[in-house]
Amino acid sequence: MHRLELLAPAKNLSFGIAAVNHGADAVYIGGPAFGARAAAGNGMVDIEALAAHAHRYRAKVLVALNTILRDDELEEARRIAWQAYEAGADALILQDMGLLELDLPPIQLHASTQTDNRTPEKVRFLEQAGFSQIVLARELSLEEIRAIAAQTRATLEFFVHGSLCVSFSGQCTISHAFTGRSANRGECAQMCRLPFTLADAGGQVVARERHLLSLKDNDQSANLRALAEAGIRSFKIEGRLKDLSYVKNITAYYRKLLDAVMTESPTLRPASSGRCTYRFEPQPEKTFNRGATDYFLNGRQADITAFDTPKFAGEPVGQVQAVGPNWVEVAGGAAFHNGDGLSYLDDHQDLAGLRVNRAEGRRLFVSAVPPGLAVGAPLYRNRDQEFERLLEKDSAERRIGARLRLAESADGFVLHIADEDGVAVAVTLAHAKEPAQNAERALATLRDNLAKLGNTIYEAQAIELDFTQPWFIPASAVNALRRDAVARLDAARAAAYERPPRAQPVEPPAPYPETELGYLGNVLNRKAREFYEKHGVKLIADAFEANKETGDVSLMITKHCLRYSFDLCPKQHKGIRPDPMTLIQGKEKLILRFDCRRCEMHVVGKLRKGQKLRLAVG
Questions:
Q1: Three-state DSSP string of 161-221
Q2: pTM, whole model, 2 decimals?
Q3: Is residue 531, in this structure, part of any structural domain at all?
Q4: Looking at residues 179-202, what average pLDDT do you find?
Q5: CB 351 within 8 A of CB 315
Q6: Burial class (CB in 10 A: 0-12, 13-18, 19+), 261
Q7: Are 388 and 240 in a shared domain?
Q8: Number of domains in the chain
């Protein structure tokens, strides 16, 4: 029997609670510092509250502690790890191996995607080093995932939805190069979403002012069964910086899809308890996305990029049919609402928007019609006001199945209640046995009163009355008995919850797959250096963030290839040479070099020793 985990993002406490209520088996959240999203930090009081809520459903809380650390930050990171454990967190998500050399609490460790997990050798090493769950690189194919799964017993986690980093995660330093803000330290400036001009080796422009490093969003919704069969056990939704409607909508969407997969396979079951009902129909196209791609899971394909805009254009809703001074008429079958947000591409092919003040059928009244909006222009909706209002409300309910049995006892009655996880309690009621005058009505009333679990996390799946004859019991007594039983069941569930155990590293320490680590090994502190030395690495360079590199350096390594995107791939067209190309952004230039054997593109910049990092010019 395999358990499948739906792992959802939690920007904060309220987002985390919403994710659990909408079906997440686990949530990941940042602590007060050192998470890979500096803008999504949380205090331990909130993490404790989130853990208490999640554990009621046997859902887990994972705390992201996944930046690389300076020496002077190690002690604070160690304290945060202990505080997270004491707050009830179930696991820490780590990137910096220096943390494994510290006095960490007995909490499960998960390897962040930023540890660059692409090979069976790397994943097997991380398992031997003490990691229980490992986030695989987004670029992997099903075949590569199967090969990794065959070599490890660790739980494999894979991103199934959300934004895609164009670079292999943990191997991107372009943000630090441009701005001094390191992605490996939670401060990515998203330089990959900027417009660039692409020139070939002879200086001829191939593409001008397009978002050439911007990808569509990850969408593996059609591949969940295949991923499970390949060995994925944790299905991760990206988005700790996304809004609440995104968390609700996307979590509910994947909950329903995973449930359908498990319904058809008796060897699969969910990783937590309870069943969700929704007051809306999940529609992923309604919330932020840049289009959809399943990336490289089923092999390389052309349609993975979002060259036109890195913004959320929205779902197509028709074309402009007519334009007035303060209104637009739309041809198409979409229904519009007051407050809808619309978008279109202007004369410069930039995404522009307008808001509907009043919708009268297909005629939409706005404050002013933008000059660039002409008849025939395609329109998109990036805010569906009616859908958003549904999500602003209490939009889901999650209930744990329970069986209730009311039986006779020597001095009255006893109520037994057992939940779907096998936790059971019994509560007694000392009460005289008075035969019911109307047997049928008395029994029906008892069942109705016992089933009143609406203000709890339980739903009655079965109610049994184990009587020698129908008895009359006042409704007030039955209600009090039920409330007492539910309170005791809550306490029993809390007491029975067990956090996942910490895996122990093998002894003697397993050798690292390589004996040399370059700057992309992300070693920024002495403890990380000690870790790799202990595991047999002989030559260890400082992390890029130490600013000690000189010469041409790969600022990104990507599976996305611009030669392939523009039909210039030497593997597809004999005679074409994989010569360098140039990305131009303002006055700055980046050299593109192509490793055709690995099917990888390197985005290269020039470093100057003793100076602040600059991009190569000329």
A1: EECCCCECCCCCCHHHHHHCCCHHHCCCCCHHHCCEEEECCCCCEEEEEECCCCECEEECH
A2: 0.95
A3: no
A4: 93
A5: no
A6: middle
A7: no
A8: 4
